Amino acid sequence: xxxxxxxxxxxxxxxxxxxxxxxxxxxxxxxxxxxxxxxxxxxxxxxxxxxxxxxxxxxxxxxxxxxxxxxxxxxxxxxxxxxxxxxxxxxxxxxxxxxxxxxxxxxxxxxxxxxxxxxxxxxxxxxxxxxxxxxxxxxxxxxxxxxxxxxxxxx
Amino acid sequence: xxxxxxxxxxxxxxxxxxxxxxxxxxxxxxxxxxxxxxxxxxxxxxxxxxxxxxxxxxxxxxxxxxxxxxxxxxxxxxxxxxxxxxxxxxxxxxxxxxxxxxxxxxxxxxxxxxxxxxxxxxxxxxxxxxxxxxxxxxxxxxxxxxxxxxxxxxxxxxxxxxxxxxxxxxxxxxxxxxxxxxxxxxxxxxxxxxxxxxxxxxxxxxxxxxxxxxxxxxxxxxx
Lengths: 155, 223
Fold this sequence. Notes:
Number of helices of chain A: 1
Shape of chain B: elongated
Shape of chain A: elongated
Number of strands of chain B: 0
Largest interface: A-B, 22 and 19 residues
Low-confidence stretches of chain A: none
Radius of gyration of chain A: 19 Å
Helix content of chain B: over 70%
Strand order of the largest sheet of chain A: 5-4-10-2-9
Number of domains of chain A: 1
Distance between the termini of chain B: 17 Å
Mean pLDDT of chain B: 81
Oligomer: heterodimer
Distance between the termini of chain A: 36 Å
Radius of gyration of chain B: 25 Å
Structural class of chain B: mainly alpha
């Protein structure tokens, strides 16, 4: 009988592990920047996200990164620049929520998102936070290959 | 019935009962086997959770889809299955068999003594448990093989798609599960058929023993 209780405990543990694992999701997005592309990384506040951004300047002219805080980074021609973006859990809200736009497409089933906007049309404040959504964005000017890879979790 | 025939029938009967005792032990070791298999699944999922959390907090860059993690999955499941099979084997090996040999060597009096000392109700119950354990053990083994086959299929599929055909590793998990299940079923067909026939033999044994017990009691009463 004791073994049956241990078995039940293990089955509950497996179910819990599967539930926690299902809340993880990976991100792997790529695009070619032509003149100007804005990369918008967004998440629901209760989610945790970490991505690695790799930008490879293509062609003879360099590429410029314009960060949301106003700083710039010049990537010389035919070279790469990599940096990480970590957006930890910054809040909690109950009930279901979803929002959908060209730049931000989030829901309880899809709590993290990366979007590429051509010609830099994203005009929100640099790193804005509402009570439900966190957003980080930067603009790539010039010809470049952009890769955003990482992982997020809904907790 | 001559003494020689009686003794050979008794050897046959007592050997079958020894086998039933082993199956009965197998049935009682079944929960241990299931515990070991589920524990290995817990270890496997813990590995995935650890890899994902380390990635999330930027401590490690090992992807949970990497080859090393995939091979670790198979290794963990194989070790779990191996430990389970060895554990069950050891448990069934502890069953003492042929303890009746010395008594039976006494001839007809020894045979009658063994029959009179037989606890028939226990034997009938053991046969029922043995049948259950025998079937469940087969099912759990097939499920464990299925898990391993599914992981190997995913790795093989990924290897072929990514390294040979240079396609993206976008697979239909349900299809792989079905293919792996059919593959394991084909491989386990012989074992499943043996188990089915053995369960049939245990059924026959149960009915024959019930008839024999009734006859033996009646004869004993008349004597």
